[in-house]
Design brief:
Number of strands: 0
Structural class: mainly alpha
Helix content: over 70%
Number of helices: 6
Distance between the termini: 19 Å
Shape: globular
Order of helices and strands: HHHHHH
Length: 120
């Protein structure tokens, strides 16, 4: 792992620390990798299944559908366990709204990307 990659992973973890996640689950590792892939290649959002979920699935010897399902369940649990005001502030929501998986990943990736741009 390159130094820059470690900085990105660290920045992702800092962003994810805003929310209540079970950090010991494989789903949490999937989430870190999904955000990382979007930070490294913003055009990957054009086809999440192919550009984000499939590379993670190959790495963990599973199917992309499993990765996506695990990530959706992780976001559901985060939403249930994180104080609503944290979610509203982070995503600029005006009402009780759960972010979709894709929106969550893209927003966290954008914040990480922006924080890395200001550091460099």
């Amino acid at each position: 792992m390159q130094v820059n990659d470690k900085k990105i992973i660290d920045a992702i973890i800092v962003e994810l620390n805003h929310f209540k996640f079970s950090r010991s689950s494989v789903s949490y590792q999937y989430l870190i990798e999904a955000v990382y892939l979007v930070v490294k290649s913003p055009t990957s959002i054009k086809n999440f299944n192919h550009n984000v979920y499939e590379p993670i699935a190959r790495r963990y010897l599973t199917r992309f559908e499993n990765v996506k399902w695990c990530l959706n369940k992780l976001i559901d649990l985060m939403y249930a366990n994180t104080p609503p005001e944290v979610i509203y502030d982070y995503f600029n929501f005006f009402m009780d709204e759960k972010p979709t998986l894709k929106y969550f990943i893209i927003t966290v990736a954008r914040n990480v990307y922006d924080s890395q741009s200001t550091v460099s």
